[in-house]
């Protein structure tokens, strides 16, 4: 595929006339061709107008048509082959196995949503049959289904150039729901975005869908994103990125004449609780595994385990010794771009300078790269120093020594909302964990035991979400099939003639989906 | 029950020390005893503290325990007997059959949520079993369920003193979800609120639940509501009332350090489309029925049909003549309180003074009461005069003569979001309605045919919601069992030991609920 540096507005490729920029090789900082022109206000308007025009016909397509479309997108991304992975590795500095895994996940995610579309539970269909003889009043015939909200603005994430970018989880779930998508490609991986964007654009054409189903705009600075979120034709926003960025978009969305939902996945330190039993049984092993999770992808995961609470003792000593050793061998990481590297270094400096903080481990360093680091403190200092609970995006960890888990409870209760909380435990720790769980549940979208939070399964039961400020909306997830619900709303049809009913709510159940009939879960008719 | 004018804070009855007020007989304006003291900041703090303390133990109760509690509340409200209906009639001016129906609906609603708790689909349980041998990576064991958000602030509505007030739909769905509730009783029916509040308080005690599960505060002015929504322990808000009120609360909620969802049901003119076939077949009958719906409860329904579009012709002439006649006989209505009456009169005056508007019908008038009124205009004037699409709360209707339904499409597309859209049609109108439906679906939460929007069924398939500004959050409904979803968020458990798993996600499925296992809808085990 020839890279042109153009944006994709409906079926067209358009050279942006606003400020141009180039991607960079994340490892060397060298500029990469081509140059990408930024979107003007007119480009935003055109993309949103096309999306609005496409909404009606696109949402009228059957789930089967949208499922095939998503599969086509998956196939076309897979067909990009090494050209895509080469470029994504260069633009992000992420290691090849990680990018290859992410490509697989991206295709798998599209196919999972295709399967979900066919399964049909996402339509939440409920039929309450008429009760004409009910006293004192008859009940009308009532039928509920979910319909899509409208065009969705998706902001590509820097740290997942495929799985959370142009055709990532937000785009896949919005397209599945029946919402056209206008993507703001992340400027840190424009060529990766162009390749994937062209694959989606080609799939739209091949599937015979209206061109406005997909557009992709580029731009540096904040104007493009602000205009997108403020555009009255945009009805929801998907975002993965910094807290400042997410909050700024949420503010714009709330101030619109018609406020719209913003699904911003923002920041999380992903606390890890090292229970006494687990430390006694496998302290050293946990220390090594922790460093593996902390330094993966230079720590640039939303679910990176940046904060640990642990019971002092020989087990923790072994953990710290092993973590320190492992970290001493950890190569300095290439970060996604210079801005993230600078923020990381600043965050680490601030931690290092904080009273009551000691350094427990330090990775290798290299010019222009990020060295991993592990700090330590005690629960008292942690409780009194609010900034210690803030995310430092990258491979920086803070271990809090905590002798009394019941005394820690108020500190846990004061923690901000998190994407994940991890517990390392043995059977002996169960009574203690049982006491902590009710608090942990109110703090995170996912609670995991004896694993590491990095590596998010894309499936039905996954929750990649959590209370504010992990996300701007705790009622949802941005990973897994439940993510489709973000872009849907219920509509009830009362006494509509059978000939006018949408397929999902017709008596014959032609989509063959599970439905609740008079409140009772009811299977589809036999094939 | 002796009325004391006290607020209910947990298990206590507390005399409010802020500005006192009395309820009034809506028909006569006479003050009613007792006087109600308003909540101080300390009262808000105490109610929220109790709610926060109750949240943990309350959400840990089984669905069965909460179901029995809701049934107990229903029984205790029923046991209030005529004392409740007498007082509600006096405070609201609503006719007795309406209030009696509403009491039945309120109890039925509580019992429906009890049944829904037992049915269990609301927990949205999903189990993705571990795949330890999957390549390249094993899949962990993942289990998802819904948990409650936390304490909820509920604002009683003036126009539904029972079904949307102290123990109405918002309270019932929040309590069902496992959220403690702090109610702000509407100052227009304080004694009705006290009676119902004491019934709930007694049920909390009898069920052995923590006292903070329910509190009820009173106050005039905005401070109490503002403090409630801003309180960090409140995690969601349910509101039914004016657009100004709902937007003000939403603004406070969005500006909190931790923003929270506000479910405000605000305003709707509930357009009615009179199709040519329907007018030809039964114009006069429709005219009479329309006036019945418009003037019911002095027009003080969220779903009051305030705007009609109709094809000119003999059928419409018959409609207008019959509507005018019926309206001429319509008694002047007692409005809920003097403020609502004044706003109605101002809204009607504004319509009457608008250029291009004619009066088609007028109800009887009486001092201190509201006369129904029907205005008429043409599509062109309507399209050019934005305020004609604004709600005038009460029995005021506006009929828009429209000769060309396809030409009306852009006007319909420009309409604000609505709770309902009604279509009167015959088989002959189906092709035309089929063209309109896709637009109507994007404008309303409920689309109904050959009926009237007043009278909202409480069931599984009901949607009492709709795009902004009908509500602040189109993704939900405030009536029907789906309303419970407003107060829930998903949590995923990864590799949790079986002994620590909540019942909803245990292998044995002890709650005997439907679940999705590896994506497949799976029935509960046989009893």
Describe this structure in words.
The structure is a homodimer of 527-residue chains. With 527 residues, the first copy, chain A, is α/β, with parallel strands linked by helices. Chain A has 14 helices and 21 strands. In chain A, helix 2 packs antiparallel against helix 4 and helix 3 (81-92) runs antiparallel to helix 6. The mean pLDDT of chain A is 97. Chain A is 38% helix and 20% strand. In chain A, the strands form five sheets. In chain A, strands 14-15-16-13-12-17-18 form a seven-stranded mixed β-sheet, sandwiched between helices. In chain A, strand 20 and strand 21 (520-522) form a beta hairpin. At the A-B interface, helix 4, strand 5, strand 6, helix 8 and helix 14 of A face helix 4, strand 5, strand 6, helix 8 and helix 14 of B.
Helicity level of chain A, as a percent range? Answer: 25-40%
* Major protein interface: A-B, 82 and 82 residues
Low-confidence stretches of chain A: none
- Overall, the morphology of chain A is globular
Distance between the termini of chain A: 43 Å
**In terms of quaternary structure, what is this?**
homodimer
Side-by-side strand order of the widest sheet of chain A: 14-15-16-13-12-17-18
Give the structural class of chain A. alpha/beta
Largest sheet properties of chain A: 7 strands, mixed
The proportion of residues in beta strands of chain A is: 15-25%
Number of helices of chain A: 14
The whole-number mean of residue pLDDT values of chain A reads 97
Radius of gyration of chain A: 25 Å
Would you count the extended β strands of chain A for me?
21
């Amino acid at each position: 595929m020839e890279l042109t540096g153009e944006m994709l507005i409906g079926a067209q490729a358009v050279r942006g006339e606003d400020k141009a920029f180039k991607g960079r090789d994340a490892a060397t900082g060298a500029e990469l061709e081509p140059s990408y022109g930024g979107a003007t206000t007119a480009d935003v308007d055109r993309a949103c107008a096309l999306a609005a025009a496409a909404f009606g016909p696109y949402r009228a397509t059957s789930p089967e048509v949208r499922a095939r479309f998503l599969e086509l997108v998956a196939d076309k991304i897979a067909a990009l082959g090494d050209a895509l992975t080469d470029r994504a590795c260069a633009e992000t500095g992420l290691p090849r196995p990680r990018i290859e895994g992410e490509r697989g996940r991206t295709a798998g995610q599209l196919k999972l949503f295709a399967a979900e579309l066919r399964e049909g539970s996402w339509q939440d269909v409920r039929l309450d049959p008429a009760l004409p003889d009910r006293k004192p009043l008859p009940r009308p015939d009532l039928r509920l289904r979910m319909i899509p909200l409208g065009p969705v603005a998706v902001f590509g994430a820097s740290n997942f150039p495929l799985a959370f970018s142009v055709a990532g989880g937000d785009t896949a779930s919005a397209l599945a729901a029946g919402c056209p998508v206008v993507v703001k490609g992340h400027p840190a991986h424009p060529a990766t975005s162009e390749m994937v964007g062209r694959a989606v654009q080609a799939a739209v054409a091949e599937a015979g869908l209206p061109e406005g189903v997909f557009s992709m705009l580029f731009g540096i600075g904040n104007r493009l994103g602000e205009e997108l979120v403020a555009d009255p034709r945009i009805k929801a926003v998907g975002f993965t990125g910094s807290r400042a960025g997410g909050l700024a978009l949420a503010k714009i969305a709330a101030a619109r004449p018609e406020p719209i939902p913003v699904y911003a996945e923002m920041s999380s330190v992903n606390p890890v609780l090292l229970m006494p039993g687990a430390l006694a049984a496998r302290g050293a092993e946990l220390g090594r595994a922790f460093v593996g999770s902390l330094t993966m992808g230079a720590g640039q995961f939303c679910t990176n385990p940046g904060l640990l609470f642990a019971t002092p003792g020989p087990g923790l000593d072994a953990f710290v010794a092993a973590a320190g050793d492992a970290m001493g061998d950890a190569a300095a990481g290439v970060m996604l771009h210079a801005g993230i590297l600078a923020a990381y270094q600043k965050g680490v400096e601030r931690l290092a300078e904080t009273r009551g903080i000691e350094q427990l481990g330090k990775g290798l360093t290299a010019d222009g790269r990020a060295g991993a680091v592990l700090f330590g403190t005690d629960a008292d200092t942690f409780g009194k120093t609010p900034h210690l609970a803030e995310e430092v995006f990258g491979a920086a960890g803070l271990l809090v020594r905590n002798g009394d888990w019941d005394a820690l409870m108020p500190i846990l209760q004061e923690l901000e909302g998190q994407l994940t909380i991890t517990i390392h435990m043995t059977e002996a720790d169960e009574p203690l964990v049982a006491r902590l769980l009710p608090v942990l549940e109110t703090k995170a979208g996912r609670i995991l035991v004896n694993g590491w939070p990095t590596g998010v399964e894309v499936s039905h039961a996954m929750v990649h979400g959590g209370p504010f400020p992990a996300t701007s909306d705790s009622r949802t997830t941005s990973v897994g099939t439940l993510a489709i619900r973000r872009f849907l709303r219920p509509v009830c049809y009362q006494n509509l003639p059978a000939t006018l009913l949408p397929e999902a709510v017709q008596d014959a159940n032609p989509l063959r989906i599970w439905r609740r009939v008079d409140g009772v879960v009811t299977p589809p008719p036999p094939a």
